[in-house]
Amino acid sequence: MDLTTRDRAISLLRTVGLNKLAAKVVYRLEGFKTANVAVLEAIDRSFAHARTNDVSGDYLEFGVFKGASLLHAQKLADALSLRSMRFLGFDSFKGLPDEAEQRREVFYKGQYSCGEQQVRSWLSRNGADWRRLILVPGFYDETLSPENKRKLGLTKCAVAMLDCDIYSSTKLALAWIDDIVGPGSVVILDDWDAYGDDPASWEDGQRRAMREHRRSSKWVFEELFRYGEGLRGGLAFVCVRERRPDGIGAAPMTTTHE
């Protein structure tokens, strides 16, 4: 099923209240694949940026689903000889949290549920190197803590993939990585266009979370590249420099589509 056909089918089923059915059918048909194949391109481009600009650190993925994009990142790093990079996947493994019910026409509680043992099995069968790959199970309000960051030995993030769909999860993830990103770090928001072209989308989801984060973060973020199409469109940002104490140098708050 190509992206255009899938998006049209999902949009139609959303309008008649069958979003949950559409998701279950699509995910079953696709097997061990990422929910958005365009995200693999985004990972490729982000790793190329990191290597070209000599950006070191780990790869963090928020929203693992079946683990396909996490494994893609590990194999790509091996091909690029990024031997010190670790790969950490954060997921409830129970699907989206309660907050997803606030926009049931787009997401729903429990969506993208895939058990941790199932994910581990898929990853193992497809060649995962568990010496450098870590899965962190649990909802983000429980797992994204300063204590957990210390336990995981996280000090620097080269690339962060935020495929966690909704506002609350994205907001928590952005705040948690703020002290481990730095100049050159790439932050990918895979659900940037998940709510479509409705102007109200700027008041929800990842767009709202990133808009607020760019105002509060000590870092200045600039748009790096777009990828995907339709409801599967994403946007990658790059951390360019630390914000001056007086706030000068902050990137403008974009409120229009590009």
Strand content: 15-25%
Tell me the count of domains: 2
Spatially, the strands of the biggest sheet line up as: 3-2-1-4-5-7-6
Number of discrete helical segments: 9
Low-confidence stretches: 251-258
Helical content band: 25-40%
Which structural class do the helices and strands define? alpha/beta
CATH superfamily of the largest domain: Vaccinia Virus protein VP39
Which architecture name of the largest domain does CATH use?
3-Layer(aba) Sandwich
Task: Please tell me the overall pLDDT.
Answer: 82
Q: Could you name the CATH topology of the largest domain?
A: Rossmann fold
What pattern of helices and strands is seen along the backbone? HHHEHEHEHHEHEHEE
How many strand segments?
Answer: 7
Shape estimate: globular
Radius of gyration from the alpha-carbon trace, in angstroms: 17 Å
Span of the ends, CA to CA? 27 Å
Quickly name the level 1 CATH class of the largest domain: Alpha Beta
Q: Would you kindly provide a written description of the structure presented here, covering whatever features stand out?
A:
With 258 residues, this protein is an alpha/beta fold. The chain folds into 2 domains: 1-30, no CATH class; 33-242, Rossmann fold. Helix content is 37%, strand content 17%. It has a 7-stranded mixed β-sheet, sandwiched between helices. Helix 1 runs antiparallel to helix 2, helix 3 (38-52) runs parallel beside helix 4 (68-79) and helix 8 (167-177) packs parallel to helix 9 (205-216). The longest helix is centred in the first third of the chain and has 15 residues, at 38-52. The two termini are 27 Å apart. Residues 251-258 have low confidence and may be disordered.
